[in-house]
């Protein structure tokens, strides 16, 4: 795919400053539900931070245009709303529920269940062993660095797993994917903001952001002046504690 082959470029569920690679792209449309990062000068902007999922917004566009989604598209949108809202356990609004209900009879819910039950490969089970072996605890916070990972998704899975432990306010799980350090943030969102903390810590040296309960940062290792083996769970702890209130 060559971007110049397209007349219009639409950015969904993100904003141009979320990733450095977006810097070379001129977007015509931005549709997102993350907090607004700046006044974007593009043809059309629809950013609604109070929505739990950008997919809920896309369903509204389809319904406004009287376009019925295919089973495949409905399934993707249905799963996206479930995932983004954590089954409506995190911040969402009535509009998310309305879009979800609209898709309920259109989506292949058996396929969605298959997605939810098989989000981890057998080869990735070893990362749980590493995460627990490297786990550090301090002041109701968990820190774990997994070293090199085959996919950043495993960091998300482990962070969500650790976030279920009682009496834990914050979870920080990191790993190195390619040439970047990826850090996953989790908290309960009560008087806390994972997205704001991620930006405070890593926003000046990489891409970082998210919601009150969940956030993510990606930082080129060269910006940290550390090699792979020099970064540990204790390094992660030191980086985050500097910015914790």
Helix-strand blueprint:
Layout: E1 10-12, E2 29-32, E3 44-47, H1 54-64, H2 71-84, H3 94-104, H4 109-117, H5 126-133, E4 136-138, E5 141-148, H6 153-162, E6 170-177, E7 180-187, H7 194-202, E8 207-210, E9 214-220, H8 233-241
Parallel strand pairs: 1-2, 2-3, 5-6
Antiparallel strand pairs: 4-5, 6-7, 7-9, 8-9
Helix pairs in contact: 1-2, 1-3, 2-3, 2-4
Characterise the protein shown here:
The chain is an alpha/beta fold and about 240 residues long. It has 2 domains: about 5-115, inorganic pyrophosphatase (n-terminal core) (Alpha-Beta Complex), CATH 3.90.1640; about 125-240, Diaminopimelate Epimerase, Chain A, domain 1 (Roll), CATH 3.10.310.40. The chain has 8 helices and 9 strands. Strands 4-5-6-7-9-8 form a 6-stranded mixed β-sheet, with helices on both faces. Helix 1 packs across helix 3, helix 2 (about 70-85) packs antiparallel against helix 3 (about 95-105) and helix 2 crosses helix 4. The longest helix has 14 residues, at about 70-85. The radius of gyration is 19 Å and the shape is globular. The chain starts with 9 loop residues before the first strand and ends with a helix.
């Amino acid at each position: 795919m060559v971007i110049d082959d397209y007349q219009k470029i639409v950015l969904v569920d993100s904003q141009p400053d979320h990733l450095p690679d977006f810097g070379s792209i001129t977007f015509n449309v931005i549709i997102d539900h993350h907090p607004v990062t700046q006044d974007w000068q593009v043809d059309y902007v629809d950013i609604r931070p109070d929505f739990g999922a950008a997919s809920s917004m896309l369903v509204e566009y389809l319904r406004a245009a009287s376009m019925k989604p295919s089973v495949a598209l409905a399934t993707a949108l249905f799963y996206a709303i479930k995932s983004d809202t954590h089954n409506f356990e995190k911040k969402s609004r009535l509009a998310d529920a309305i879009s979800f209900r609209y898709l309920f009879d259109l989506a292949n819910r058996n396929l969605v269940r298959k997605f939810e039950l098989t989000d981890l490969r057998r080869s990735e089970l070893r990362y749980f062993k590493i995460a627990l072996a490297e786990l550090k605890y301090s002041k109701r916070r968990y820190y774990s660095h997994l070293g090199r990972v085959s996919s950043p998704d495993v960091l998300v899975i482990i962070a969500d797993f650790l976030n279920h432990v009682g009496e834990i306010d914050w979870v920080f799980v990191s790993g190195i994917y390619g040439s970047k350090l990826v850090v996953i943030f989790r908290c309960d969102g009560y008087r806390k903001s994972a997205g704001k903390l991620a930006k405070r810590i890593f926003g000046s040296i990489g891409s970082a952001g998210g919601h009150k309960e969940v956030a993510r940062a990606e930082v080129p290792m060269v910006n940290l002046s550390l090699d792979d083996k020099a970064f540990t769970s204790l390094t992660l702890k030191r980086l985050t504690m500097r910015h914790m209130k």
